[in-house]
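Please, structure for the following, as tokens.
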Amino acid sequence: MIKLITISLTTIFINSFSFAQSAVTGKVSDQYGAPFHYATVSFQALKTKKDTIIEKITDEYGNFDLALTEKGLYLVSIHVENVLKIQRKIEIKESKETLEFIIPKSLLTNQILNEVTVSKGKPMIQRKIDRLVMNVAQTANAVGKSALDLFKIAPGVFVNNGQISINGIMGTRILVDGKSLNLAGNDLKNYLQTLRSNDIQSIEIIAHPSAEFDAEGSGGIINIILKKHNIQGINGHVGNDYALGLGKYATYNPYTALNYRKGKIGLMTSYSYTHAKSYEELKQQRNFPNLGTYNQATENTQTNRNNRIRAAATYDISGREFLGFSYTGQYSRFIGPSLAHSTINYPDPTKNMTSSGRFPSESKSNYQNFGLNYSIETDILHSKFTIVADYTLNQRTGNSVSNSTDIDASGHIIADTLFRLAYPSTAKIFTADAKYNWIAKTGSNLSVGLKATATDIMNTNNYEVFQQDWLPIPTLDFQFDYQERIYATYANYTGKWAKIDYQLGLRAEKSDVHGQLLGNQNASLSQNYFNWFPSIFLKKNLNTQGSNYLSLSYNSRIRRPSYFDLNPYKYYIDNYSVQTGNPHLKPQFTNSVEMGGLWKEKYYTALSYSHTKNAIAQIIRNNVEDELLTVIKDNAGTNKIWTVTLSAPVSWVSWWTSTNTLLFTHTHSTSPYFNLQKASFVLQTDQEISCGKGYSINLNAFYTPQMLLGNIITKAIGTVDLGIQKKFLKDQLIAKANVSDIFYTNNYKATSYFNNTKIWISHKEQSRVSSLSLIYNFKTGSAFKTKRIESSNMEEKGRL
């Protein structure tokens, strides 16, 4: 790289007087005189025992000035965009010297620059100091997948019925471009299912976030990075994903995006429509009162229709000052006509019963987010002050119907029930965040910030029974109003001491929560708590290149109940199974520590431990004397999880590479209702094969023999996905084909334990899917550095 760069160095003597200290000024430019602003220029003394390095950042005109304590021989290094590096030995003889560095700009065209997208494909998995990055934009087996499907193939991530965990720890928070989604429960699941891979650039998995992040999310953070363009002029794309569940239903997703950039102004807009249809089969068996045995089978055909609109405008007030506005709108409709059939068998067959019913549900949600982002760099070292504010409005209407018939052993109807529930909800959330990141000349930096959040939610639940006409049931109606105020401040310092890189952070959050339940059962809740959340990260390089290092991290996190989980609604899955909310949920707290090491810049090993108290988990309550089974979120005691991580990328040949991850886990869950512990492992592998002539093949596989989640232990789960990609018309037209879960093994059987009772569960869904995707880019080019509009509601969006 350095050999390809031509450097012209001209030294002009200004003054012949000799002083102990020398003042050096200079400029970095290309061969046409255009300056390289914000390049780093460093002087390292060579003929001295002290390892002295003095650095300066060029201004917007490419100029720099610095003072050297001694004359003599120096190694001068220049970094353009933090990557391109050129070096020259220079002897400083005079008290004032002027230097000029000329770098031909034509030689920078194909270089890899910071925050610049290049044509060369990235590996599927990249491991950084504080996170793991899964690049999906160029991956063939990502075609046709939703964000939720992509989570399932991410190393260390496990998805079970919409619940997401990292390294076995529940409570993972979801961000999109650094913005938390103000969604939870079925709304969050539907959003992730309709966010397709064609919109996604990469997925960041942050198991141990620092104090700079909101403390919300005991299970870490998953940040979805959407595709961006910042090319001068007009560019965009149009495409369609088509997926067919083998033997079942199809999904299609047309989409388009248009981007305009001229000078300081940037305009971006995109629209996508998703029509997704899938199915889910659930079977369960459990003991019933009076020595009965209960068997139930439910089939749910789900249809999602989703319109998503994104728009943003940016204005570069100057090279250092930036203003941005953003809007995200999602308008969704979900329909789930569930069919259930139950049989109850007794030792005396004359007492046997059957129950059949239809339990359809429907919901509509209008989600809107308005964002404002302002930032200004306060010095040439890129210290930055940022203000971000967001307002979120989420209006949701939902209703469910229970229409069932119970028949005795003689075939006579003994019960016939028809009732319905309407549960509209309105949420308003305002967040404001101010932070300052100060960068010192030594390279260390200090980040400080303040944040305030105001949340108001109103939930209404109305029940009606059909008796020749729909009649209200006032005794069951209720309204649940929820108000939350959170105030936070943090400080995060990064530096180096005794050749150890460190990051020390401390966050403080005060939470005031008030809820009012109005109806036949009036009640109120009030939770006020103040908590400290420290974070520590240490890194010791074992060689000068930094390719081998040891690391140690610790952090403390909180997981607050989602607003939806606090709503005490009741939704009947069938006559003997109900799902309900829990207004008395308390937050859970998790402390995590991890010791890791990177070897030869690619082999990663780690040992981690986490301890969670008041763990929030989805519990299946089932007592021997009760006919009704209840699915509810509850504080299920304490979780202790040990994890050993081994990760090894392998290049079999020049055209075949793979990334392999093996996790050994031991989970111990204790509560007043159960005491469970299990050891297991998770094996994930990703194979990338370049076939030439624009073809590439990707194979991804996952397997675990068992998982312990709350009070549920699953049996073996695995999947194999295969994808192929071809580029046409000078890479403007891209075709991708994929088959996921080839052997139809990404379904599970499980056993639930509660108060000495067991429930045997079997779950199937439309996981084997054949997909085809076509996308046409009507303008291509190198993507230059992009301003990202940040968001202040990084915690609240995952809890609606």
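The helical segments are 147-153, 185-194, 563-566. DSSP finds three helices and 49 strands in the chain.
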